Amino acid sequence: ASDAFLTRYGAMRKGLQNRHAPKRRDLVGLLGSVANEKEAQHCRTLLKDFRVHVPKLEDARPHGGALIRATVRAGALSEALKLLSEHRELRFPPTLGSTMLLVRQLGVAGRVDDALAAHGILAEASPDDGRVWSVGFLETLTRALLKGGEFTRAAKLFASFREKGCTPTVHLYRLALGRSAEGCGEPDTSSDALAAVSVLEGGMKADSVKDDVCDRLAAQAREAAEAASQAAA
Predict the structure, then answer these.
(1) Which residue numbers in the chain have pLDDT < 50?
(2) What stretch(es) of the chain map to CATH 1.25.40?
(3) Which residues, 6+ apart, have CB-to-CB distance to 115 below 8 Å?
(4) Which of 13, 23, 71, 144 has the fewest Cβ atoms within 10 Å of its own Cβ atom?
(5) Of all residues in the chain, what percent carry a pLDDT higher than 70?
């Protein structure tokens, strides 16, 4: 941890131990300045000390958002996920923006289960917020699943987001069908990928999405699956 960070952290910690709450702006400033895992851990301690000064949970929204954002930017993804999972204990409501950043970076790192877990924590904490089931989250999670060849889970994810009122974009259908078509040509994933294509086509039909590119990709997927099954035979 840097000297400047430790000086500010030490002063705030001492103040809190003497029942003197820091100014909200100063706290958010320190949380948002985290540059590594150790500093993020110090800030977790700070939030624990600060809990008694949070009468209304909504007031603490900027705290968690600033700390998780900074922790993700510092590359400490496991620590950021831990902070998010402890949001009740640390008394802050998870924010959409910081959770999206974490989900995206976990997906890029190939940590699909952790990305889904982070989204699940947000969904549980914000049951009445439809934005949790946005196309942005669906696309980020779908990309991560398809990159890992997880066609069955990607299809289930699509279905569950649509049940929550999300309408996938044509761009997202193209992305998912394109990757599924590739999967249809690989013997190990062919049947799962073909089943995913059927789920995607069902979603398009229900959402009245008409797109020539999607139709072409679905046809390519079927041809690839047929060729893969003949090759396997």
Answers:
(1) none
(2) 1-133
(3) 103, 104, 106, 107, 140, 141, 144
(4) 23
(5) 100
